[in-house]
Design a protein that fits this description.
Elements (H helix, E strand, L loop, with lengths): L16 H9 L10 E8 L7 E8 L2 E8 L7 H5 L4 H8 L7 H16 L5 H29 L5 H20 L8 E2 L2 E2 L7 H23 L3 H7 L7 H7 L3 H5 L7 H4 L20 H26 L19 E9 L2 E9 L7 E5 L1 H7 L1 H4 L8 H7 L4 H5 L1
Antiparallel strand pairs: 1-2, 2-3, 4-5, 6-7, 7-8
Helix pairs in contact: 3-4, 4-5, 5-6, 5-12, 5-15, 6-7, 7-12
Length: about 400
Amino acid sequence: MAGMDTDTGSPPPAGSADGLRQLTVGTGAGLDTADMVLNIGPQHPSTHGVLRLKLVLDGERVVSCEPVIGYMHRGAEKLFEVRDYRQIIMLANRHDWLSAFANELGVALAVERMMGIEVPERATWLRTALAELNRVLNHLMFLGSYPLEIGALTPVFYSFRERETLQAVLEEVSGGRMHYMFNRVGGLKEEVPAGWTRRAREAIGQVEARMPDLDRLIRRNEIFLARTVGVGVLDAATAAAFGASGPVARASGLDLDLRRDEPYLAYGELDVPVVTRCAGDCHARFEVLLDQVYASLDLARRCLNRVDQLSGPVNVRLPKVVKAPEGHTYAWTENPLGVNGYYLVSRGEKTPWRLKLRTASYANVQALATLIPGSLVPDLVAILGSMFFVVGDIDK
């Protein structure tokens, strides 16, 4: 009988490997088992959003996983079609609420490309600096919330301390703490306050000096390592097949970053460090986020130094009614969570005929269907949290 000692017909000793598996996986003592269907959600797991996972379990082991999305669907792409180009920026900045500046930026870049607008150099460097600061804010949220999801309470206080330092800088320049609405077609909303670049560099210096506190607290924590190393391994081929990008893909060894490979803004004049790992497990994904914070803080400082050397406007004068010429274009950016694409189709009117979003979180969540089966239920949250998605970015 399965699960019985072949010589004696008795269950294997509790201390043996088979006995341990029976105790932990739940198939023990030779009992017949049946698969169980379990719903995780729909609920709000930490900062990610409302997602449902339909699981089939054999004891404590996941047999299959079906991500069910659509609980937050707001029809943003249809709403774009009845709003002019200034108004859609407000809608677009909200689908990934942790990356609002980057979301605005992609729309602005697509419209500027359609209209043939050349953005002033000062605005280009300011946009690059703000995009990197927004990247750090996004990563700090996950660096605090991910350990929290698997039982580590302290890191979230350290990460939010750094977030507050940087959010004060972005709030001063834009008036917003999450939804900045600082991009405009043709540049930025307005000039930055006097002395802002100096204060921003001081904030960056403070965060850099304190980041080792968070780093030492969690990167080599033995409990955190036990929960993440070798868990939820996503190999490079599977990541590429699902279209995964950003930190999730780079943790699996896919060396792709649009800031370096297809430069936009001022990235072509910067030496952009691309953080990669090859293990593809939960810990590798966490480490990519952590090391990217250091890299992005340095990039933001270099951009601010360049801004101080430039003068001139931060936007171009536009007509009262902005109309993109008839045609279509595709702009893509390296958002904090991965590659975002913006496919814009215009019929020469003040509203887009179609604006299709290709969001990073959608592709990342697809991979859960392959990644989770075979894992144990206790590892489920560790894997789910390590994929770094925002459900608003999926449902749009």
